[in-house]
Design brief:
The chain contains seven helices and eight strands, in the order E-H-H-E-H-E-H-E-H-E-H-E-H-E-E. The protein has 248 residues and is α/β, with parallel strands linked by helices. The chain is globular, with a radius of gyration of 18 Å.
Amino acid sequence: MNTFVIDLKDASGYLSHATRVPLAREIGADRDIRIADLPGLLRRLQAAGIYPVARIVVFQDPILARGRPDAAVRDSAGGVWIDGRGDRWVNPWDAGVWDYHVALAREAVELGFPEVQWDYVRFPDRPSGELAAARFPGADGRPRPDAIREFLRHARTGMADLDVALTADVFGITTTARSDVGIGQVWESFIDAVDAALPMVYPSHYAPGSFGFENPNAHPRAVARTHLVEGARRIIPWLQAFTLGTPP
């Protein structure tokens, strides 16, 4: 192993480590510490020659949505929107949400991480029936990919003084889809805004008939459009290492 991705903030909204970021402490995001000595862990990894990556989940954040409901995705009745799984999301158009995550990322770099990996840098991937009630203040008619690109560029600007790689996990289907598939991720709109995109090219997640295969799970494939984008950066695909359906 030469690289180790560490969850600093996962989809629960909790941080895995002690933090000095005021908003995180105010909303209670530091109340489920799972890494007692993060600096010590980073020293161990460095001694072993292992490259550490700080994973930070962005827009699915029930802790921030509860603590700052004004920053949450709203519902048509004026409250906080809750998806069919009971999850709360924060608004991808909200600059305060952007700043919170930049503050967390800056802290990660100060602790010793050379790379920050954004995840859930997207709109909710829920059925249209659920999303019909969701409201995203600040959109003002702009398309969703603009919010994702603006966040990534904002993060780049906010961390320009630091020596850090900024990468992003994206849906695998972004390598082939021409629309944003409802989540605001379009390949051409983010591939030049990060140091690397990490598409989750899991064959088991493609519908029957994709690419002309009745069972895409038996035919792993990914297609990149990177060469068409000026200033495009690297691609590092996530590969499936689990069984879901057939074949094993």
